[in-house]
Specification:
about 210 residues; alpha/beta; Rossmann fold; six-stranded mixed β-sheet; 6 strands; about 15% strand; disordered C terminus
Length: about 210
């Protein structure tokens, strides 16, 4: 399973986060608390998370609900967004309109200093493949990360590629995806199937922005 973190004040104000270590706001903390029982109901045996606190704090609620130790891994971090981290979308649009038009459609290679999509796919899928290999057949593990990183990871695991812009929409705050390993994939085929995408707990606090981060 893959889970996006709860809302941050930067999500709410439309600020570009990237790898800046922003915190969950009150809504985000409530989302994390609300989603934890739903994820724990899958009976996971492992929870790994990005080391950025918006993901790690979200993951801590899940780990506590499931009675598990939490492991952090920087490979699950969000895209690095170079020079544009920290500015609002309004500021970005006004200062760099052409570049911003690429950014909002997921063409992040236009962003000065941004991490490449293949680099993000490589590190996230490597981490998640390692997580899957650490559990027994039939067991469930949870990876907690970020909107853009997760959509690239899902595409990488399911299709074996990463496109720009991604073929997948970003998940809502505390939205989750369910992937199932194929029993016997053919040579060269991806070994994962997407079972569910962007599920959310039945709570009005989950109707949040899908902004990156």
């Amino acid at each position: 399973m893959l889970l996006r973190h709860g809302r941050t004040s930067w999500n709410a104000s439309g600020r570009v986060q990237g790898q800046i270590d922003s915190e969950l706001d009150e809504t985000g903390l409530a989302q994390a608390e609300a989603v934890a029982p739903h994820i724990a109901a899958y009976r996971p045996v492992a929870v790994w998370t990005s080391d950025l606190q918006r993901a790690a704090v979200t993951a801590s609620y899940v780990a506590r609900e499931a009675g598990l130790e939490l492991r952090t891994d920087p490979r699950l971090r969000e895209f690095g967004l170079g020079e544009r981290e920290g500015i609002t979308h309004a500021e970005y649009s006004a200062a760099h309109p052409c570049e911003y038009a690429d950014f909002v459609t997921g063409r992040w290679s236009s962003v000065p200093g941004a991490e490449g999509v293949e680099d993000v796919r490589s590190r996230t899928t490597a981490c998640l493949t390692e997580l899957a290999a650490s559990i027994a057949p039939g067991e469930v593990a949870v990876g907690v990360a970020h909107g853009a990183a997760l959509r690239v990871a899902v595409e990488g695991l399911v299709a074996g590629t990463a496109s720009e812009p991604s073929a997948y929409a970003g998940m809502d705050n505390c939205g989750w995806a369910v992937l199932r390993e194929r029993h016997a994939p053919r040579d060269g085929e991806p070994s994962w199937r997407l079972v569910a995408y962007n599920r959310t707990a039945p709570d009005p606090r989950f109707a949040q922005s899908r902004t990156a981060g």
